[in-house]
Fold this sequence. Notes:
Blueprint: E1 8-16, H1 22-35, E2 38-43, H2 52-55, E3 60-66, H3 72-84, E4 87-91, H4 93-96, H5 103-109, E5 111-115, E6 133-139, E7 155-159, E8 163-166, E9 171-178, E10 190-200, E11 203-208, H6 214-217, H7 220-233
Parallel strand pairs: 1-2, 1-3, 3-4, 4-11
Antiparallel strand pairs: 5-8, 6-7, 6-9, 9-10, 10-11
Amino acid sequence: MTHAATPKTALVVRGGWEGHQPVEATELFIPFLADNGYEVRVEESPKIYADAGYMAGVDLVMQCNTMNTIEADEFNGLRAAIEAGTGLAGWHGGIADSYRNHADYLHLIGGQFACHPGKHPDERIGEQSDNYVPYTVNMLPAAARHPITEGISDFELVTEQYWVLTDDYIDVLATTTQAVREWDPWHRPVTSPAVWTRQWGNGRIFVSTPGHHVDTLTVPNVRTIIERGLLWASR
């Protein structure tokens, strides 16, 4: 007699700034999770993180929640779940600019969005596109041997280029370099992580800074990296 494999549980937490299309962006990946054997639950706020009984059974959290707030009990629940083995994965501001009010969250993730330098001031029109610039995602040597990034070479994007503040406990798979342009106030190029992982207790964390909205998420290399990152982070 054979028994069907027990499905894994994925929790999608989305919300915050609508410019990052939290609903459309997460809906892009929910079928992928279902196809890989996950039962998916969607929540529109981080309140669920405070439910310790439920979180104990979550294998993966996919978060897309930008410029929002998180309460102490919610954060403590998320961190406890990760330390016990739950994975956390996300992209762009949905994970790297989620809860500016909570320093411990920044410590958990290992990186925080600082800015996305935009076009020449004369080219700006007051729209999101003011911040869309051409840039390269550079794969590091470690990327060739990592299941998230193996087989992927450097690639070009035209979207927001995240400058992030990080610590050296992250494992960086790809970077991007902010050039010095005549109107910029910095004096030398600045290289920021673009894709990284982090081990926290028994859990894994995955972050991709490319992913401003659906147009970026459907770029083949970006989508592949995120899909692999979801599976890698999962318990």
